[in-house]
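Forwarding the complex inputs:
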Amino acid sequence: MTRPPDGPSPLLLDMRDIQKRFAGIPALVDASLSVRSGEVHALIGQNGAGKSTLIKVLTGYHRKDAGQVLFEGKPFEVHSPHQAQVNGISTIYQEINLVPLRSVTENICLGREKRRYGLLDWNAMHAEAERLLSRFSIGIDVRRPLGEFNTATQQMVAIARAIGFSARLVIMDEPTSSLDEREVGALFSVIRQLKAEGVSLIFVSHKLDELYEVCDQVTIMRDGRTVRSAAMEEIGKLELVAAMLGRDVAAVEGHATAFGERDRSRIGHMMFSARGLRAGQAVRDVSFNLRRGEIAGFAGLLGAGRTETARLVFGADRANAGEMTMEGAAYNPQSPADGIVAGMGFCTEDRKSEGIVPEMTVAENLTLALLPKISRNGVLDEQRQREVVERFIRELGIKCSGPHQKVRELSGGNQQKVLLARWLAMNPKLLILDEPTRGIDVGAKGEIQRLIRGLADQGLGVLMISSELEEIIEGADRIFVLRDGVSVTELQAADANEEKVLTAMAHGASASSEAAA
Amino acid sequence: MTELPRSYADRDAVARSFDLFGFLSRYGTVIALVLLVAFNLAFTRNFATMQTLNVNLTQVCTIVVVAVGMTLVIATGGIDLSVGSLMAISGALAPMIFLGKILPIGSIYLSVAAAMIMSVLVAGLLGLFNGWLVARFRIQPIVATLVLFIAGRGIAQVMTNGNLQTFRVPEFQWIGLARPLDIPAQVIIMAVIVAAAAWVLKKTLFGRCVLAVGGNERASELAGIAVSRIKLAVYGISGLCAGLAGLIVIAINSSSDANLVGLGMELDAIAAVAVGGTLLSGGKATIVGTLLGALTIQLVRYTLLANGVPDAAALVVKAGIIALAVWLQQQHRG
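Prediction (whole assembly, two chains):
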């Protein structure tokens, strides 16, 4: 367990050229990850970069298609997370996957209970649990149910459980997302202690400051590949973000999107404003505003609070603090219905779980928000429904066999068009588009971008969230950069470029721009 | 993490080849019903008579009425276990009113009207209570309705001190005994309720919202649908249906026994809904299917009894049919 006095410590884990496909779709193309003993290793990447898949391959949840895994110098192949745990690799997930109603002891000893004469030896197990927790200076009553303790303590219990399996490698998947600052501090001191004991950690997080505080080494993934691996002190935040998004810090020539040039003189009066929005840990201080006919872009890393802010604006969640105005009047939505009444629409980023109703037809999905307007005394006006549906299928070029095809049979791009049509049919003033082109093919992507542009030209205010930098830079008239739940920068399209946006995403406010009011 | 779209080519190939499971899950109930009738025509003596038809229809009526409400609840992704107990409450309350035990009302017509309206309304309110637990506190429907499943029958027994109430009040009992145009009154009631519910589900804003909530609750909420109100409403309607069914049962029996009215009804109703082809996870429902499902289960039981198979064995067959129907649904969906 001790480090050799000189030189780098030996490789504990060495994953090389890992490949994994799901039903023909590559999730890991060429992924590698090397972790030394006693090292805290950051694993970062955008959504869909392959981090989780790589970890699940390591812990036996998925089986790799090709590649090699060496653990402690020997080939390592397990078929279940439990087997991985027994072999010294423990994983702690974002949601604590323990049993809240059972005691702390039971949770720590679950799967390796101590027995005596064939019966459970509770005294020995309680003692063991107390011993493990005392290593982190936690003195709690291990006989009480786990659920009685706060999240941070539960997380410590999860870690204690991991160590109890004499883990050589602990994987933490976004461990800090539900912790407050003080709890994060406690977690980091545990991490440092583990490190001192020679245990290695893989730390998955989107919070850059945390990575710099606690990690020694970083591996960056993108599109199923490992694109960079470096010592933490050798790589700057800007470089890190650029590598994650696949950008050169140097500017990119030409246009990558179909938004085209805009005549910004047509942008009208101020329509919506939000000041000091706050909700939970995700949104801490967001201010922005939007004019008629303007496309405002939200840029930021995963977890920056973009979607959470959009949900507050629409009324899907409620703000704890801050004020909003819509068309000059105070606006304080309690539910999506309030947002709709105020003239808003919201296209979710999660098409599948909160967008489409899969068992329903194209027509039924398209008119879901419009229902009250196409019914008279509670009875649906089928004639009007047909007119609306046929018009939007034609105008948006939705490819389907007809209004009565099940929406789940459509391609992602066409499902997205149905959702867009759901809101356009309402004739909204402000449309919130959360990742409008995620997961759809290039052709449909261009069509949707041109459509958004056309709608703004007609006077619609659009709030667009996108993780694709070119979409934000070329599509938006103004860009608001969010970082850790705070709107740090506002950039005008005219003087926005990738470097400025990336800088703001990585460091917060930059000298060259004014902070959002 | 990554979405896994199956390639369209694969899916088209599947669609072009004959989809046996899809066909069976869509028309299986009708086929079963036709086969049963054919079998009976061939083997059961005196099957093709009005009397047989009436016996089967009158027996199935209460199940269908309750199952219609249950279909709406299940369409939202819920379930209502309390229907049998609500029948007992409504069945206990009505005679207490029209026999003048609570307050004397001079006119028998007035007191019967008050009895019917009050008892159905009380059942409806208790249904709203179920909906309130489900919508407001997000309690799982199976647990929320278990409360009244257990307590409801107890309440009915306390109301009547556990006594059997017998009566002979034609002004009330027409609901179970009258035969206008030689059709039993409760069959007419059933037909009206089935037709109305089928229309509501297909043609109205409310029906569309019910299916949307069951099909994707979060999407419905984001589309501005008042999900809580929809849930309240379906449980309320289920309570009303149960209340009405309770009246029919006591009218037929000329007596009300809080121990027995509606006993096991929740399972019969759920079975009818499942066999009828409504998706138990919500989002897809058919009222006519529920009617056919109830008729199929009834006819199976009748067929077995008429051919000398004991009732106990008939229960096993009933269970087998339900298992088969649910399995077919699963095949079609997977």
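The two ends of chain A are 53 Å apart (CA to CA).
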